[in-house]
Each structure stands twice: as C-alpha cells, then as structure tokens.
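Re-run with default settings, no changes from the original entry. Doing this only to confirm the output is reproducible before filing.
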Amino acid sequence: MAEAVTRKPPRVKRQINPWFIAPIVALAAFMEVLDISIANVSLQNIAGSLAAGPDEATWVLTSYLVTNAIALPIAGWLSEYFGRTRFFIACIAGFSLASLACGLAPNLASLILFRAIQGLAGGALQPVSQAILADAFPPAKRAMAFAVYGIAVVAAPAIGPTLGGWITDQFSWHWIFLINVPVGVVLIVLIRAFVPEDEKPEHSIRIDYLGFGLIALGLGSLQWLLDRGQPQDWFSSVEIRILAGVATVALLTYIVRALDQDKPIVDLHLYRYRNYAISNLMMFVLGVVLLGSTALLPLFMQTLLGYTALDAGLVISPGGFAIMAMMPIVGKLAGKVDLRKLITFGLIVSGSALWAMGNFTTQVDMYTLALFRAWQTVGIAFLFIPITTMAYVGLPESANNQASSMLAFMRNLGGGVGISMLVIALERMGAHHRVPMVANTSPGDAQWEQSLSQLQHLVGSHQQALAILNQKVQAQAQMLAFIDSFHLMAMLFFVMIPLVWLLKPGQAESTTPPAH
C-alpha cells in the first residue's frame, strides 16, 4: 500500500507558536470528554420531559458510548486519509451540530439517534488533539504540552456530573447539549487561524470496508455489553451472551486480518515497540482506576451515607482541581526526572490513597472523603503525562496519529471495564459478606435477641425493629464490599510497578526524531 500522507514543508508549522495550539486542541478534547459524564445526573429530568422510563433514558448514555468507542481507534487512520486538520474541523462541526440537535430533540428516539451521531463525531477529538500536540511540539517540550491536554481529559469526568446537575437545575437539561454549539463555533475559528492545515493527502489506499465493519461491530458490541451488562444480569441474559460472542468473533477476525496487512485501519504492528505496548496496558489500568473510582465514590456516598447527587459531586470535584494544579508541575518534572520514577511515584501515591480508603466507615465525613479523593488524584497526575510521553519513545513520527488513537481508546476502554468490574465486585462481595452476618442474626443468638429486644422497645414494633436491624446488616455487608473494591483498585496500581521498569529508560527527546 502507498504512504497515506504527504505533509506540507516544515516551515509552515514553525510560523505558529505551538503554545497557541495547545489550549485550543485541549478545549476540543475537554468538550468531548465532558459530554461522556455531563448527562449522567440529568437522566431523570430527560425521562420526565420526554415521557420515557428510566431504563429507556439510559440509552442516551449507551448510544453515545457505543459510537464513541467505535470512532476512537479508527481516528488515526481517518486523520491520515482525509488530512488531520480538515478531519479535526469536520469532527468539531459534526459534534456541534449533533449537540444542537440533541438540545432540540422532540422525543427520546431522536435524542438517542443524535447522541449516537454526537459520539461518533466526537470520538476522534481526543486522539487527534493529542496527535496535533505531538507534532506541534519538539520532543523535549511534549511533556508540558501533554500536561495541558491532560488537564482537559482527566479533569472533565470529575466535574462533568456537578456541572451537568447545576445546568439542569438552573436552566434545563437541553442546555447541557446546547452549550457545546457556541464553543464549537469558536473552536473552528481558532483552529483555522492557528492550527497548521495539512496538505490534502495524496494516496491510493483502498478503503478496507470489511475492516471498518469488523471494528464497528466488535467494539460497538463490546461497549454495549459493558454498559448494559449489569441491568441485564450479565451472562444470565441471552442478549449479553450474544453481544459477547459477536464482539469476540469480530475483533479476533479483525486482528488476524490486520496482522497480515501493511496499512491496516488500526495498526497493531505498533505493539512491536516495547514502550508503546506497556504504555497502552498502563493507560488501560489508569482508565480502570480513574473512572472506576469516580463512579464508585458517589455510589458509596449516595447508598450508604445518604448524600445527594450534588453533594457527592462536590466531594469528587476537589480531585479534579488537584489534577489541574499538579499537571503543570508534573510537566516541568517530566523534562528533568526519569519518567519511570515519576510513574512509580504516582502509582504508589494513588495506590496508597485507595488502600487507605479501606479504613472508611459509615461515619466518615465529607471533608475526609474530599481529602482522600484529592490525595488519590494527585498520584493520577504523575501517571498521565509520563505514560503518554513514554508511549512515543522510539516510535516513528509517522505513527503519531495511530498511536494517539489507541492510547485514548485504551483509557476509555479501561474506564468502561473498570466501572462494570466494580459494579459486579460490589454485588458479589456484598453477598459474600452478608452470609456470615446473617448466620448470626437467627433466633436463639443471644446478641441478636438482645439487640432486637432493645430496638423493639424503642420503636414499639417487632417488624419495624427487625427491618431496621436487617438494613444495618445489609449496610455493613455493603461497607465491607466497598472496602474490598478500594483495596482491589489499589492492588491494580501496585502490581503495575514492576512493569514500569521494563520501559526503555531516558527521555522521549533522546529516542524520537524532532517533530515537524
């Protein structure tokens, strides 16, 4: 196959200060990542407004996630085929128009359709933003550029639910989508002014329609499975078993075909590079823990502590601010300190915070929760930039588009797997811890009979006293399940530490040719 892209001469990019480019492309990524979580707290309002049930309203999230998962890994190939800057502008325009349509949707069916289009158009914004930064900055300055990008994609999920709740309460759910339209218009103007425009690619690549179909079918089914598995009781559901089979067959078929092609849509040959392969695995685990903990903590606060969605969001938000404060510091350190040391430090800090969360009780206060969340996310800040920077070490510059697509995809896939895994773990471990507790709550147990008698004397009803004690048992079992989940996430980070030292040492600038 012929080379996909013919670039403009280097002088075009040298005419523009890359620090004008960084915040522009970071804002595009922020807008897209924000829309993954901003609608979560508004589902009840959407369902009520459009006369839909709660289960039906969840398709507003599922449709976006499914098409987003399809778009992420193929964004690099599409950038090369159509020209990266043109493709980037087209995606922002499509995302903005789909957002407008979502805000004006007259019924649930049209909203789900427009959300699917929004996810498809927006899926490329993360990887293309990162690829533009990788090319715009010389290797010695990439870490600081990735710090700007990192603030956008890591902080957005943390503030999304809080911002979505505030917009919905102050205005209406329509504005969580409509707000993207003016932002998109401004971004298109700024990109045309400051981001260098690629030459229109001159290529003779045959479009692999079968490859596109396999990726869309496989990843779409996988994301659908992850999002709908819990409500369907996982593999007890015929629907979930079919989705698992389709995803497995489609993805394995694509892998076999791609390994035999010179220029596949998703280039799996990049995994020959040790740093890139290890960085993808660590980015997957980062997604598991970051998005998994972001989902777990509000669930803990709302189910066991009685917090409102807004209060839970307020506890999570300081973690986002901690990341934003630490990213520039980590970016500076990344140019001076062995990146493997920074990654190891981040894993230890964040892992120890998660392990310490295992000491939580049902009496934990809001301040302590916010403090521990900030402690955890400080460690996360030491992971995102170094892992991203190390992924490009040794890669040819022509691989930047493909590399950034898979890194973004692995982080998002990790998030989906992490949330699903933790929901299953909570349910299974809660049931496991409840069994021995129930064994001590049968008639004849002296302590149980005494507690029941005292409570019955207070409330005046045997049945009411029994219900209260059962609730306490259930709460304690769930508390132990949450503790196990926090420990599980901590262990995932700790077992990554030896893997860090398999990365090739040194800074990216010593192994990667200068960007142009």
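The radius of gyration is 24 Å. Residues 1-14, 507-516 have pLDDT under 50 and may be disordered.
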